Amino acid sequence: MVLAYVASDLPPRRVNPPPAVLRKALAAGLTAAVLVPATATAAQRTVLARAAYHPNDSGVAAAASTGGWAAVQWELTGPFGINAPAAWSQVSRLGAGGGRGVTIAVLDSGVAYARRGRYRRSPDLATGRVVKGYDFVDGDPFPNDEYGHGTFIAGTIAATANNAYGTVGVAYRAKIMPVRVLDYEGRGYPSTIARAIRYAVRNGADVINLSLELYDGPPLAPSPRSVTASRAVRAALADARRAGVVVVAAAGNSSNPNVPAKKYDTLAINVGGTTEHGCLGDYSNHGPGMDLVAPGGGADADVRGDVNCQPTLPPGRDISSVSFRPESPGRFEVLARFRGTSTASPHVAGVAALVLASGILGDAPTPGAVERHLEASARDLGAVGRDRFYGGGLVDAAAATAQPAAVTPSG
Known about the structure:
The chain is an alpha/beta fold. Helix content is 23%, strand content 12%.
């Protein structure tokens, strides 16, 4: 089950969310709201190795927890995680700890960014690190989250570190720009998405995360319905790329072997989901346009010849982040039952932010340069080399943020 459906290119009707419907929508756990080596120089210094940075976040919505965040966030530290702690240490030594100075636009169901009426700010998102956003569903400057999905995604990207609470974001000091494009049922529309992309570009986003099903269709469909088929969306994505904004998008949860299609490969970094075992998730789309994979949780797919895939064994753990249940928007907790390509995409967006903040690709690398760097530094999974299941491989934050080796002058 997915959380939303692209009905048409029309704006949604504004109605009060029925709690029973919302509870049922989130019960399935699947997330992906449907729409739908730099050259070293002699001047570089050798840096002494240090212990990887480990924040004190509890791993639960309470003051303390046995094992803390690392006990629940396998996707950051586990055998098939993204190797985040080493990346945090490396980026901190470069003066850009936690992705400081980078703004990530979260185009989603909104974010629990502030107290307003019945809404509250997520205690795992610091007020000072949320910049002005917009609500394209209601047409106002208050992109509060009515659904919980966007808050979960924002936390995956940038949850506050070292606050003895909850989880840790991949880029825990990056700024979040909340842009609401999905209604209380997680539905969105191509025209809304296009306008929101342009808004994020105009207002200074460095990275845009689209935890939305840009590709929607049944398995084996040769030409599935796609939000990227919208001329407005394609044009907005192309403009974002020309403006130097890195766009990261979920590949979708239809288990479709034909998407992302190659013709969409240049529009965004297309991200599939992997499990705790290092296998493609049984929900994840996969096709010739797949760029990278990242942890999405869930059960293993049956990928022939892949020794990591054990579909007959119990599923691995899902992804954890602080959010709320739709019927209780003021009550926050660590939700540990979300899985899908929506939860994979923000891991890549966070790593992209760390790379940009580090400056290892220069002051203003192009989106293409960032994408190629992430693919070149990724961990190969499945068949040797690039393939349709894993693209360039599992994103590796530590490898992506490593400084080039220093060159010793000859003579």
